[in-house]
Design brief:
34% of the residues lie in helices and 12% in strands. By secondary structure, it is of the alpha/beta class. It folds into 3 domains: 12-123, 2-Layer Sandwich (Chitobiase, domain 2); 129-469, Alpha-Beta Barrel (TIM Barrel); 495-537 and 574-650, Alpha-d-glucuronidase, C-terminal Domain (Alpha-Beta Complex). The strands form 4 sheets. Strands 7-10-11-12-13-14-15-16 form an 8-stranded parallel β-barrel. It binds 4-O-methyl-beta-D-glucopyranuronic acid.
Length: 661
């Protein structure tokens, strides 16, 4: 029988150690609980495949080996402990999700080659909320989707089938506990997800998720009172609007008792919001928070609010400032079931941006981090770009929001300020392609985000190796090589695209491929300000003042071009091409060098992939091989276009006299 979709990292392979019989015992947990039931199913499947064993349930006294799932209230919420011996693997947890994660952890260890007698781990999630955000539209298209169409929505109908179940399994296996199924741009049929037209199917989907310990969330149209209710306004302080929402949310929870809550994109890129009525973002979020509170739901409110109709001649308005300007002064006013979701950078998921100063800038507000594993600006899942190193940099960033416990990881986990609503969300990179992520290697980002959100202490390399071991069966030298390819890929992509933190020099709309001036004169607030003398945006105290949004320690560094890290220097400063970077190179020479290097290194990793021919299944090999061919064409084009542009602008020769067109 031929598979209809890939099993990703859960495609278990037989290990060397054969075991005839294994018994599964559930102790202290209700065996019939939906999550425990899923866990037992997973164990049966995995142990059967990995050991070729006959797996049975019950008291395994007669069997030589047992896997025990044991309840113990001493274990942390959603955490687990694993210990094993010659006769058993013991998985201890205090709640069902913890038990399921413990089961998947044991399976992961076995899949990574750990002997069944040597399993031990103690884990507790770093973040309470670990979420995936789908930008799936109900017609089946996916905004910024690079792996086919939606597997949730086809022709404005909701699909729940075996693939949905597998999807939930994959997500639970990496610790995800919340999923937003529809695009934050809620229009057309999606506005009706909170009506009878879709309740039955959304409920079915929420049950499939619940079997795997996952809550379903919906993106909400803030103008629903107008579009669904026929009201004339959606002012969050208007009595009739509030009453409409009260009735609506009551109806929603009657029909969807498992719903986690709503995600809202308001006053952003044409979406309706409280600003229309002269209200604040807090007014909008709190109104919905209050209405949903009786049902235990939460409101996740996005901070991606900025003026998207800027004039390029306007040097005062700075898109990077917008999030902080709109939200910081309302710190402390958000109600306790409201959580602000903040993109990692102040612009929009560029290959290199500073960390949003709003993260940790807010000290009295629930907040969570939003990253994007859909590779909108990072190569469309054609180019290899393993993003976990970028996410690690974000999490490790020291905000100076307080003396200790002040990194982004501390802030978004809730540790820094004692929030119980906190966490990480990723704009997901999946679609209905056979392999889910377009490029087989892009699954490393899907896997990696989940693992990192559960345990922010894991290194990029550990995560890469786990994923490789679970996905392929490679000799250690080849695993080393593939790990190295993944770990270098982000920097390589950065080198052949936009230099020194400037970002944006992409083809407008689609965002794949170079167009140095593509966004330079448009309304989106995305400028590099290059002229014949220099390049970069002055965001210092003498420019837009963005650097001053950071706590003093960081503000001082960013404000000074001599202290600012090279990789962000053009984000914060307008500098002459002849400016000497900390590396000792001039700006222009850095541009030339990194572009030639980036293309050369892309060729290197593409050539490395060819060494794996015959060592991995040919469909995987061919899929990635073809993508590398496209990546090389892309890298070449970036290199040539960017170098020619700046050679022509500056008139300065490459010191190494390489070919610039
Ligand atoms: O970067 C922009 C994307 C939009 C997206 C928006 C957002 C969903 O280009 O496609 O809309 O970000 O994050 O809301």
């Amino acid at each position: 029988e031929s598979a209809k979709w890939s099993q990703l990292w859960l495609d278990y392979k037989k290990c060397k150690d054969s075991v005839e019989k294994i018994a599964i015992e559930v102790l202290g947990f209700d065996r019939a609980h939906r999550v425990i039931d899923s866990g037992v199913k997973e164990l049966k499947l995995a142990l059967g495949r990995i050991f070729g064993a006959e797996v049975s349930e019950g008291n395994g006294a007669a069997d030589p080996f047992a896997v025990k799932i044991v309840k113990d209230s001493a274990v942390a919420k959603e955490g687990y402990e694993l210990v094993s011996s010659a006769s058993e693997i013991r998985i201890t947890a205090s709640d069902e999700n913890g038990a399921l994660y413990g089961i998947f952890a044991a399976i992961r260890k076995l899949s990574c080659g750990v002997a069944k007698e040597e399993i031990s781990e103690k884990a507790a999630p770093s973040n309470p909320l670990r979420m995936m955000n789908h930008w799936d539209n109900m017609d089946g298209s996916i905004e910024r989707g690079y792996s086919g169409n939606s597997f949730f929505f086809v022709d404005n109908e909701i699909v729940v089938d075996e693939r949905t179940v597998d999807y939930a399994r994959f997500m639970a296996s990496i610790g995800i506990n919340g999923i937003v199924i529809n695009n934050v741009n809620v229009k057309d049929a999606a506005s009706y997800l909170i009506t009878d037209r879709y309740f039955a199917k959304v409920k079915e989907l929420s049950e499939v998720f619940a079997d795997y310990g996952i809550r379903l969330y919906l993106s909400l149209n803030f103008a629903s009172p107008i579009e669904l209710g026929g009201l004339e306004l959606c002012d969050p302080l208007d009595e009739s609007v509030i009453n409409w929402w009260k009735d609506k949310v009551k109806e929603v929870y009657d029909k969807l008792p498992l719903l986690g809550g709503f995600l809202v994109k308001a006053d952003s890129e044409g979406r309706p919001g409280p600003f229309t009525y002269g209200r604040t973002q807090a007014d909008g979020a709190n109104m919905l928070g209050d209405v949903i509170k009786p049902y235990g739901g939460i409101i996740i409110w996005r901070c991606f609010v900025y003026n998207c109709t800027q004039d390029w001649r306007d040097y005062k308005t700075d898109r990077a400032r917008a999030g902080y300007d709109y939200f910081k002064n309302l710190d402390g006013q958000y109600h306790d079931n409201v959580i602000l979701q903040i993109k990692n950078g102040p612009m929009d998921f560029q290959i290199r941006e500073p960390i949003s100063p709003l993260l940790g800038g807010l000290t009295k507000t629930n907040q969570m981090l939003e990253v994007q594993i859909a590779q909108e600006y990072t190569g469309h899942q054609i180019d290899l770009c393993y993003l976990v190193p970028m996410f690690k940099e974000v999490l490790d960033f020291k905000t100076y929001c307080q003396k200790d416990n002040d990194t982004i990881a501390d802030v978004v986990s809730g540790r820094a300020f004692g929030n119980s609503l906190a966490g990480m969300a990723a704009v997901i990179n999946t679609g209905n392609d056979f392999n889910w992520t377009g490029n087989y290697l892009a699954a490393a980002n899907l896997y990696g985000f989940g693992r990192l959100s559960y345990n922010t202490e894991l290194s990029s390399e550990e995560i890469a190796r786990e994923w490789i071991k679970m996905t392929f069966s490679l000799e250690i030298v080849d695993e080393d090589m593939l790990t190295d390819m993944l770990l270098r890929s982000r920097e390589i992509y950065e080198k052949y695209t936009s230099p020194l933190g400037i970002g944006w020099m992409v083809t407008p709309n689609g965002h794949y491929g170079p167009s140095v001036d593509g966004y330079e004169y448009s309304r989106w607030g995305t400028y590099h300000r290059a002229d014949h003398l220099g390049i970069g945006v002055d965001r210092t105290d003498k420019g837009t003042g963005y650097a001053q949004q950071y706590y003093k320690e960081n503000a001082e560094v960013y404000n000074d071009p001599k202290k600012c890290p090279d990789n962000l220097v053009l984000f914060f400063h307008h500098l002459p091409y002849t400016w000497k970077l900390q590396s000792g190179k001039t700006v222009i020479q850095h541009i030339y060098d990194t572009h030639f290097e980036g293309y050369a290194e892309a060729k290197e990793i593409a050539a490395n992939w060819e060494k794996l021919e015959g060592k991995i299944p040919s469909d995987m090999y061919n899929n990635v091989h073809h993508r590398f061919e496209m990546q090389l064409a892309n890298a070449r084009e970036w290199c040539d276009q960017v170098n020619s542009y700046f050679y022509r602008k500056s008139g300065i020769e490459d010191e190494l006299h390489r070919e610039i067109y």
